[in-house]
Amino acid sequence: MPKIRVLVVDDAVVMRKLISEALSRDVEIEVVGVAANGRIALQKVPQLNPDLITLDIEMPEMDGLETLRELRQAHPKLPVIMFSTLTTRAATATLDALSLGAVDYVAKPANVGSVTECIDRLQGDLVAKIKVHCRHLFRQTPPPSAIVPQVSLAAPARVASRVPGGLPGLPEVVCIATSTGGPNALAELFRGFPGGFHLPLLIVQHMPPLFTAMLAERLNKLGSVKFYEGAEGQTVQPGQAYIAPGGKHMEIRRSAARVVLHLQEEAPENSCRPAADVLFRSAVSVYGGNILGVVMTGMGQDGLRGCEMIRERGGHVVVQDEPSSVVWGMPGSVAQAGFADKIVPLDQIAGEIVRRTRYLQPAIHT
């Protein structure tokens, strides 16, 4: 069986060694070369023919963004995973890289006690992503945590049981979950979003601290909806969007006549903090079944249990289809479980949200 050939690009000798050691622990991955900057990396690509590149953002001579632009011209389909420090500047550059065609990113370990812990964290963060983005090289499916089995859309899906009394009224809130591929997917979703949308939008995008603030800032430039990185006690307002801050779970609670955000740092769920299941669960406690859940591209199964709760209370769930997803793990798991009312391409999700929040009648369920 062939191994996944990886080229590691980083200006720091120590980081190159740590990444190489972490990847070499996996029998399905081979580090075929290293490079200290983008210029050297571009020279090595045709020589080494890697299946994937890990690319540092901040490097001398030719940084990660410049290197990525050059790579996309000569090798448009070569997967690139960016390495970023947890700084505002790096977060901005990482989002730039994703818009330029990088498939994913990993935050460099910070405040790690030992070399062994650093390697362990790198392996945990990086190996699964490499295998997902190189899954086309293998016949076997990736680990269940990354990708779910194929779903036959022609076959009737198993439908979650619903509470007695039929369907509730129109949705009062939209809850969105996404991960790998999410920043670009959210940009496309809200680029086509109508102005004057009348419901609050609560969003979980799996990202580290600082990155979510930069994401909210970028999405604000689209102009269709006002975005905030969620803050403790913030009142949830109609027509505004709140992104769970990196490193914190975001919940909602009723406070007198208001609905407010609550942030907490309890244990990760589905290996994630923020986690969509935490948000969805709290939304059900506040709005019952008057919820539209949306699950978009991402690894793993975060959001699955939350969608089950939404459906059991009579709410509705829309998921992104496989062809338009970078990774069909999160939406695929919901579809496979039979909790999706509709499976649609990314470019149709905005229209589906509008239709279901404005025009869906209580007696209609498709």
Structural features, described:
- By secondary structure, the protein is of the alpha/beta class.
- It folds into 2 domains: 4-137, Response regulator (Rossmann fold, 3-Layer(aba) Sandwich); 173-358, Rossmann fold.
- It is 35% helix and 20% strand.
- It contains 11 helices and 14 strands.
- The protein has helices spanning 13-24, 38-48, 64-74, 88-100, 115-133, 182-191, 211-220, 276-287, 304-312, 330-337, 346-358, and strands at residues 4-9, 29-35, 52-56, 80-84, 104-107, 173-178, 201-205, 226-229, 240-243, 249-255, 258-264, 291-295, 316-320, 342-344.
- A 7-stranded parallel beta sheet has the order 8-9-7-6-12-13-14, sandwiched between helices.
- The longest helix has 19 residues, at 115-133.
- It is elongated.
- The chain starts with a strand and ends in an 8-residue tail after the last helix.
- 50% of the residues are buried.
- The model is unreliable at 141-167 and 361-366 (pLDDT under 50).
**Order of strands across the main sheet:** 8-9-7-6-12-13-14
- SS element count, helices: 11
CATH architecture title of the largest domain: 3-Layer(aba) Sandwich
Q: What structural class do helix, strand and pairing data support? A: alpha/beta
Total domain modules: 2
- Shape label: elongated
What is the CATH class of the largest domain?
Alpha Beta
- Assess the beta-strand content as a share of residues: 15-25%
Helix content, binned percent: 25-40%
- Helices and strands, in order, run as EHEHEHEHEHEHEHEEEEHEHEHEH
The CATH homology group name of the largest domain: Methylesterase CheB, C-terminal domain
Radius of gyration: 21 Å
Q: Looking at CATH, which topology of the largest domain would you report?
A: Rossmann fold
